[in-house]
Write a structure and sequence with these properties.
single chain; two-stranded antiparallel sheet; 3 helices; alpha+beta
């Protein structure tokens, strides 16, 4: 796999914001299948909608990624999401007794 392509993908995640989500158009195939613990989707627009929704509902999301393995046309990339939970939890009352 081309190192430049992988670096562009990693850089996009490292600097992802609501304005540059559209850059996935140049890096991801249109019939992408994306599965994680919260999503099971197919298609580039559905993939991008995950991130648009995330930026609408999560405060200060930041991706940390690491290229774990690369060989020919295969790459294993670990991507971690850090975010502030205060916005998500603002509608919940916490009671300590």
């Amino acid at each position: 796999m081309k190192k430049n392509y992988i670096n562009n993908y990693l850089n996009l995640f490292s600097n992802l914001n609501k304005e540059n989500i559209k850059k996935f158009d140049d890096l991801v195939v249109k019939d992408i299948v994306f599965i994680d613990p919260f999503n099971n989707i197919k298609g580039l627009d559905n993939f991008k909608n995950i991130f648009y929704h995330m930026f609408d509902t999560v405060e200060e999301p930041k991706f940390l990624n690491n290229l774990f393995f690369e060989k020919d046309y295969f790459a294993l990339i670990l991507i971690f999401l850090n975010y502030d939970l205060s916005q998500l939890l603002s509608n919940y009352a916490l009671s300590v007794t």
